[in-house]
Amino acid sequence: MIVLLYIYRWDRQGRKGQPCEVLARGTMNSCEVRFSDGYRMITSRNAIRKNTEGGHDRA
User: pTM for the complete prediction?
Assistant: First the structure.
């Protein structure tokens, strides 16, 4: 069971407000995130925030 510790904040690709996990952190403030449906994207670390609801479980 993986806990999704972050929330995607930006309105890009219809993903605003969805829980995600950070897979890798890169240079220039970038990171790779994965959403609960398996979709991955490279984005700015400014686009994510900590999930204050205690995390969401991914099946």
Answer: 0.81
Q: Is 51 exposed, middle or buried (0-12, 13-18, 19+ CB in 10 A)?
A: middle
- 21 near 2, Cβ under 8 Å? yes
pLDDT tens digits, one per residue of 13-52? 999 999 999 999 999 999 999 999 999 999 999 999 999 8
* Sequence-ordered alpha helix ranges (H) in 1-59: none
Residues in the chain: 59
3-state SS, residue 47: helix
Give dist(CA 18, CA 23) in Å, integer.
16
d(CA 56, CA 51): 8
Distance of CA 17 to the CA centre of its chain: 9
